[in-house]
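If your schedule permits, I should be very grateful for your opinion on a structural question. I would ask you to consider whether the tokens describe a fold that such a sequence might reasonably adopt. Thank you for your consideration; the sequence and its tokens are set out here.
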Amino acid sequence: MTEQPAAASHQPTWPPVAIPGQVGAHRAAVPTGDREPSTPPASATGASDTGGSPTENRATESADRPVPPFVGPLTEGAHLLGELRSAIETFVVLPHRQALDAVTLWVAATHLQPAWQHAPRLAVVGPAKRCGKSRLLDVLHETVHDPFITVNSTPPAIFRSITANPPTLLVDEADTIFGSLKVAEKNEEMRGLLNSGHHRNRPTTRVAGNDHQPTKFRTFAMAALAGIGDLPDTIMDRSVVIRMRRRAPGESVRPYRSRRDTPALNTLRKRLAAWLGPHLEEAADSEPVMPVEDRAADTWEPLIVVADLAGGPWPAWARTACQMMTAYEQGQEEDHGGLKIRILADIRQVFTSYGNPDALPTESLLAALRADAEGPWAEYGNGGLSARGLQLLLADYQIRSANHRFGDIGQRKGFSRSQFTDAWMRYCPPPARTAP
């Protein structure tokens, strides 16, 4: 067994994982390769401190309210985050000021990845083209720690590139990876890598080398993914979600030109690394007071720690962004439900419409689901929800089709109502009562 070299002494020590096989680092910690720029850091041009107008939802109704000025001295970190924030909004209009604060803190957090227990994803999603998603990735590429563009990269190539001081993964057009059911199944390994890489000590094991020994590869790395429409639920649940919009009349940005703007952004990257580097152990030991719980707290904790290190107004701004943006995403889930929850509720409605029979043929169930004009099933996958797609949605509930006999039509594949009763009780709200 070949052991990986120990992490640098200034990095926090994390307990090893008992998985057989280990290889040496395939990729040394890569210097950014920045040349010394002659131009000063980018600054905002004509952008207000309060950002754009709020998204249309109950959780961000106060997103564009004026923020009271911070009274007191600002630290080096607070000044630096302010410069980064201004540089980002020079080129991109974010949906509200909390989103701008979150992106700023996420970028800074990439420079302390060895300190984190969880590697938050940044999900940059929008309803259509030309919402600024790719332009935001351009800015991220020049400011995050060791950017790794994953265009056409295979999962084995990516996890062979992740070291103890991991790169920052940047995935553009993520909807082409996870869009249709057929494509999503093809890219299941990529989704697994992105999911496991959210948590430290979740390596992937492959047989490698001439002697075909089990080999452990790291997956832990922060990642930003941009795409049209929501990403898979398992990724969205591990993400700080930025819901981009097209610029409205009157909203202007500076055109991004890499030759002109890259040196200034790279200077910001170097200054972020110089400021945060000495705080690595302090960040690793931090247990900040969080305004949210569970996985949301795991995802937002690195951003909150960076804000606390900076001081000034940033601790309050970070917790406000965390609370409001998390509340909105939870509201989205409650309003629309994940597809795996939605399918249960819709199947219950189909059984009710048929008078709650003991079983329904798969073909009848699918036809009823696709006939719902307000449901997602007519446009799910290619040509609407298929029997295969239905099986995948129900797999986590251990619900599978079986042969049943249905009166005049004889034996058909179908589902019994009793298969769903436990899942309906656990995951679905009680059915609405109708007036007699």
